[in-house]
Structure formats: C-alpha cells, structure tokens
Design goal:
The longest helix is centred in the middle third of the chain and has 11 residues. This protein has a single domain, classed as CNF1/YfiH-like putative cysteine hydrolases (4-Layer Sandwich). Helices cover 16% and strands 24% of the residues. The radius of gyration is 16 Å and the shape is globular. It is built from four helices and twelve strands. With 221 residues, the chain is an alpha+beta fold.
Amino acid sequence: MLTPGVPTPFPLHWGFSTRQDPPDSLPEPRLHQVHRCGVVEAPDAVVEADGLWTSRPGVRIGVRVADCVPVLLAGPVAGGTPWVAALHAGWRGATGHGDPEPGGGILRRGVARYRALGGNPQDLAWACGPAIQRCHFEVGTEVIEAARQDPAWRDDLQSAGPSGKAHLDLHGLLKAQALDLGLNPAKDGSMGLCTVCRPDLFHSYRRGDATGRQWGWIEIG
C-alpha cells in the first residue's frame, strides 16, 4: 500500500493499493465505473458513476484503476465536517469529453461538490495516484483536442513519442486542473509512478493485463 506523504486535515486512512496487497484490505465495490464524470455520495448499493464522496466516518470508498488516474481528496466542509472523495479519471473523465452533463471533467465536478457543501479548496489534502504516465500514454488527436479545451491546458502537457504520435501527460493535466481550482500545492501527495513501467507493483491494461485492477481508496478515521 502506498500512502500520500502529506498532512491531513483530520484523522484519515488513504492510499493506493498495489498488486501485492491482500484483497481483504480493499474497499467494498460501490461503483460501476463508466469513464464519465458523475460524482455521487457513497451509496449502500452499486451505482453507475466515476466518483464517490462521503462524510461518514468508517466508510471506506475507492475507485478501481489499471492505467487511469485515481484521485483522492480530503477536507472540511461547513461546520468543520470531514469530507472525502475518490475519483476515477481516464482521459474522458479528466476532460469531460462526451459527458452529457455540463461542468467539465471529474476533478472539476468533485471540487464543485466540495465547494457546494461549504468547503474551501485551499483546505483540501489531495493526491493523484499511480497511473499510466506520459512515457507510455500514446493518444490520438481527439484526446489532445479534448484536453486542449480545459482551462488549465499547457502545451508542455503534450509531446511526441518515438513513433511520432502524440503522448499526453494525463497526470500532469489533472495536477494543473487542481491548481487552477485553487488547491494548495503544499497539500499535494501525488505519486508519479507509471503503471505500465512497473509490472512488479501494478496491473496495466495497456501492458496486456485485461482483468487486474488496483485501488485508490480513502476513509475518515
């Protein structure tokens, strides 16, 4: 288990699993993930969405990934109530591409929910977990065009790979969004490990692992 190395605003358990972690340490599945931008309060039954939040202590929530970016958020809302969220961000989720609802990508919607509950983005502890990194994330023009629509886009998030095709820094795009949304860089516990480069630690769909997944999870302690 990999734990973000930043202070948290209240007692908290959070982290990113590896393929070496025992299954009984992982969350109960609560999401049918669909590569969209829906963020919902943690339910008692499985729902179709790509982000969960809760203010209930002892409820472990999480998202499953094999190359997409797991994003964890933790901060106080109105009255000092603890609030945590776990988000699943592939390129569609990060950019909002193809999602029928307005509001941008899933991180923007997660932070909007936090603000709606009385939270200040500066108070959030946050972390983007291990995922496919720029070195292996070769993408088509439609992916780059979708990413370019985001207000946080920078040209250095795109580069040419060995084949001449575009590579996208999806991890970097999400971190740029976080700063654009007002999150504090001093509270960033992100981990830039590449799921494709590290078969000893991670499952990777692009590497040919079609069924294995790891978790990004969080729980108010």
